[in-house]
Structure formats: structure tokens, C-alpha cells
Amino acid sequence: MQEQTETDQIRLEMARTLVAHLEVGENKDADRVIGELAEIKENELFTEVGRLTRELHEAINGFLLDSRVSEMTQVDIPDAKERLNYVISMTEQSADRTLTAVEESLPMVEALDKQAGELLAEWDKFRSRLLTKDDFRGLSDELAAFLQQTQSHSKSLHDNLSNVLMAQDFQDLTGQIIRKVIDLVHDVEEKLVKLVRITGGKLEVGKKVDDPAVLEGPVVPGVEQGDVVTNQDDVDDLLSSLGF
Amino acid sequence: MKILIVDDFSTMRRIIKNLLRDLGFTNTQEADDGTTALPMLQTGNFDFLVSDWNMPGMTGIDLLREVRADAKLAGLPVLMVTAESKREQIIEAAQAGVNGYVVKPFTAGTLEEKISKIFERVEG
């Protein structure tokens, strides 16, 4: 405050001198005083810029020295990438196991269905007394074979269904991994917010630009993804409005 | 009926292959992106193409454009099965000459409905 008054005093003094020079027409001297006044203002500006630069420098250094930040960049983020890759491979394995079990099971079910249908027709004939003794012997052999196959197929189907069941174990593990990565993203977000604050916090919040060339991938509830359809009915409506 | 299934994820190719087999289409082949698919289409005498959109190499929309630009393939029915669900993309695919558009995740019923619709129109 004291300093401020002093500067004011000096400026007032100079202003008076300036007026005095102007009143008697000493233009050269008047110009010199104006120059000196401007210099005072410039000096103040430089001091202020210097102070802000130093503050910014210290804040950024403080940010960089924050051990959590370097830990995140050197350990956590590479870790997170590994973890997410593991999630991809686990879900892929699970899908493969499930698909294999289903692909093995479907033909067995189809075979049982087909044979049961054929036997049922024969059985109906038998009940309507349309079968000869020899026919019946044949049917009896077929029935025995069918029951045997039913038993062995049932066992295989049971194994395959158990495989499908066990293949769902990825959900628990990937869930835990993804939750950890979400925590990390949250941490990074906090640090970034801090960094934005240091740099003045005056960055305009940019609205996400909808670039048609960027493929968005699956619709995620609660995530702004531009003008998207939400289900197949919307797609059908849109296409039919285009004359499809 | 010979069908080419194009998707970069083998899981999705398997699912589509199994669904098609259930619908009675047993003659299917697979490709993992447009670059692999295009030469197969040009020499393979396919009757139908089912393609994803977002794939490394050549995307599904580029594959569709290549197909429509190729005199021999121009009339091939193409069904897009994709997670891309922006309105402008669906319009883009329609303008590029797609015959049907199914968004993932989809049901067996939807796939069947779209396929039979395409064949009705192609044959009728």
C-alpha cells in the first residue's frame, strides 16, 4: 500500500510537470515526461508477467513432482492396458468355449430329434398292429440302439452345458479388472482437472464435435454419441423413410 | 446359396455362421475384413454378403462401395450387421446401396427377418 502511494505520488508529480511544460509550450520536455510515465506502466506490466510466469512454473513443477502422476504414467496406465487386453482375451476365450459346446451339442439334439421321430412313427404302426414279427424285432433293436445313444448323447450334452456354465466365470474376473481401471481413469481425471486449474481454468469446455468419419461403435446407455438409433425398429423406420 | 461372412471378430463370424446354418444356409465362408473379402467375392461365386462395418484394413462400407462399383458383383445382395448406429451412417449405407441393415446386438429372429426380406425383394 505504502509503495502504491509512492508510485501515485511520483505519477502525480510527473503529471504536474507535464502540465507545466505544456502550458509554456515546451513540447520536447512534455514528450520526455510522457515517455517516462509510459515506462512506469511498462515496468509494472513486466513485473506482473514475471510473477505469473514464476507461479505457473512452480505450479507445473509441483504437479510433475507429484509422485502419483509419475506412478500413473509409468506403472498404472501400462498396467491398465495389459489388464484390458486380458479382459479381451478372457471374454474371447469364454465365447469360444461356449460356441464350441453349442456347435457340438446342436447336431446331437438334431440327431436325437430325427431318430425319435422315426421311431415314433414305427411305434405308432406297432400300436395299430401294423408290424410283422420281423418288423417288430427290427424296431426293438432300433429302440435299444436309440436308448443307448440317448444315454451317451445326454452325457455329452451334460458335459457341454457344464462347459457353457463354467465359461461364464470371466464375468466375475473381468468385472474386477474393469472396476480397477475405472478407478484409475477417475484418478487421471482428477489430476487433469488440477492441471486445467493451474493453467488458468479458462479453457472453454469444448462440445464434443460429431465427426461423421469417426466410427462410434456400440451404443452405450448414458454416453453422448450423437444422433444414434437405439434399436432395430429405429433402423427399420429410418430405412423405410428412405424408401426401403 | 453361397454366403460370405465378413467380420474382424471370429466370435461374431461363428455366431452368424451358426444362425445361418439354423436357417438352412450351410454353404458359408468367412473373411476378417474387406481386403480379404473382395478377392474371395470376385472369384468365389457368392450369392450373398453379410458384413460388419468397422474392421481394420478395408471397412464394410468401403467393401460395399467396391462391390457396387464392380460390374460382376454390383447386383450382389449385401446385409450390413454392425454396432454402428448413427443415423447418418445408416443413411450413408443406404446411399451406398446396402440391401439391409441390422444393428448389434441382434436376435436370430431379426437376422432371419432381414435375410428373407432381402431375398423376397431380390427374387420378386
TrEMBL record, chain A:
Pfam families, per database record: CheZ
Keyword Hydrolase belongs to the record: yes
Keyword Cytoplasm listed: yes
InterPro entries for this protein: Chemotax_Pase_CheZ (IPR007439), CheZ_family_phosphatases (IPR050992)
GO cellular component terms, semicolon-separated: bacterial-type flagellum; cytoplasm
Family matches, as SUPFAM superfamilies: Chemotaxis phosphatase CheZ
Enhances dephosphorylation of CheY-P, annotated site positions: Q176
Catalytic EC class: hydrolase
Main location: cytoplasm
A GO MF label: phosphoprotein phosphatase activity
Compartments where located: Cytoplasm
GO BP annotation list: archaeal or bacterial-type flagellum-dependent cell motility; chemotaxis; regulation of chemotaxis
Record EC number: 3.1.3.-
Keyword terms of this UniProt record: Chemotaxis, Cytoplasm, Flagellar rotation, Hydrolase, Protein phosphatase
Gene3D superfamilies reported for this sequence: Helix hairpin bin
Functional description taken from the UniProt entry: Plays an important role in bacterial chemotaxis signal transduction pathway by accelerating the dephosphorylation of phosphorylated CheY (CheY-P).
UniProt similarity note: Belongs to the CheZ family.
Quaternary structure note: Homodimer.
Protein's name in the database: Protein phosphatase CheZ
Species of provenance: endosymbiont of Escarpia spicata
